[in-house]
Amino acid sequence: MKSWFLTGKRMIALTLTGALGVGVFAGCGDGKASGNAAEAADSADAGQNSAEVVEITNVSYDPTRELYEDYNELFGAYWKEKTGQEVKVVQSHGGSGKQALEVANGLEADVVTLALEGDVQVVADAGLIEDGFAEEFDLDSSPYTSTIVFLVRKDNPKGIEDWDDLLREDVGVITPNPKTSGGARWNYLAAWYYFEQQGQSEEEILESMKQLYANVLVLDSGARGSTTTFTENGQGDVLIAWENEAFLSLEEAPGEYEIVVPSVSILCQPTVAIVDEVVDYRGTREVATEYLSYLYSEDAQRLEAKNYYRPSNEAILGEFVSETEGKTITELPADGKWIINDITLTDIAHFGGWNEAGEKHFADGGLFDAIYEQ
Asked: Residue 360 gets which letter from DSSP?
């Protein structure tokens, strides 16, 4: 039966839009959260921070809605026990690139938890984050990681197994827009690396990428929008997806989808950072720092894994590694071991870091513009 309505965790996350009274806000995938988050931030400046209550704003990207819904509750309990103070976390979600621009242009965030270092750099370039943010927390300020997989419909009717299948004329692809979505940039680079691994020259890779994007039916602004296009609107044969988004689809619509893990992908490192100008203005540096530091705690790491993010703690990650063979996942594993490690992963360093990759591939006039000519 077709899944026409939002269910499960995604419905819960969206209903939190009205929950500002309890200090949690989950924005819409199109970025409309930003205005309401800004209003909430202004109310904090007006005196809501006190000895009894402190309020911070976390501007994040699309697929972290469910993760931070859970994490904010976990952190709130930890902070209350440690300090006796209640903490209220205002959430804003949207395409990562768009969220970065919102903060750079005035949306007051105490912390950003974005899809990639390059988006945080946009905020730093606006003078709001001090240099060295990638070294402020462990592992390049990336407390959890992810990778890119394929979500296909039940029984994989198009027989999609790897990136080259996405070039076939009979395959409709759904992926977000790299101009606005950090996840979309990871998708793009994972595909690029696959064709590179096939021995293609840059000219040949460009032709392969043109064919892939010629098959894209909809370029949504963010990853959650693309998931909705695929699952709720029924468009496309394959969704190029964050790992956690794909697993949420299995969780919310059992028997309707399958995950295909390609032979080659990329290690996605979402980056967290304190927005220095804002925390110093609001006097929230201590709680904001602890909010990001606690993402590395054992409790938080297991929570991240249960939300289908890969923990940075290797020992905890090992608790969730699958022992079964095969690269097609048809249902959530009963033992909770969902991570398939039999995959060749590159990383952003292969592309020269985000400054070089952004300039070459995603800047105006870059390779993506040439690939996706209208």
From this structure: I
Please give the angle made by the CA atoms of 53, 106 and 29, to the nearest 5 degrees.
Answer: 80
Q: State the pTM of this model.
A: 0.85
Residues, the chain: 374
The fourth-level CATH superfamily of domain 148-267+322-371 is Periplasmic binding protein-like II (3.40.190.10)
Residue 16: other Cβ atoms inside 10 A: 18
Q: What distance in Å separates the CA atoms of residue 165 and residue 232, rounded to the nearest whole number?
A: 23
Extents of the domains making up the chain: 8-145+269-311, 148-267+322-371
Q: Which residue's entry shows tokens 């940039």?
A: 185
| Residues 166, 160 contacting (CB under 8 angstroms) | yes
Same fold, 8-145+269-311 and 148-267+322-371: yes
Please give the pLDDT value at position 283.
97
Q: Would you give the distance in Å from CA 40 to the centre of its chain?
A: 23
The residues, any chain, with a CB within 8 Å of residue 289's CB and separated by 6 or more, are 274
pLDDT on residue 49: 62
Residue whose C-alpha is closest to residue 187's, from 249, 240, 134, 150: 240
SS3 111: strand
Say what the pLDDT of residue 16 is.
Answer: 37
User: pLDDT per residue over 249-271, tens digit each?
Assistant: 999 999 999 999 999 999 999 99
CA end-to-end span of the chain: 36
Side-chain half-sphere exposure of 197, counting CA atoms within 13 A: 18
Q: With a cut of 70, which residues of the chain have pLDDT below it?
A: 1-50, 374
CATH superfamily label, 8-145+269-311: Periplasmic binding protein-like II (3.40.190.10)
Helix (H) or strand (E) holding 62: none
CA-wise closest residue to 273 among 299, 291, 298: 291
| Separation of alpha carbons 160 and 226, rounded Å | 18
Cβ atoms of residues 343 and 107 within 8 Å = no
Residues in CB range of 223: below 8 A, 6 or more apart: 29, 61, 62, 63, 95, 176, 181, 183, 184, 241, 242, 245
The whole-number pLDDT of residue 103 equals 98
Compute how many other C-beta atoms are within 10 angstroms of the C-beta atom of residue 39: 12
Distance CA 20, CA 89 (A): 9
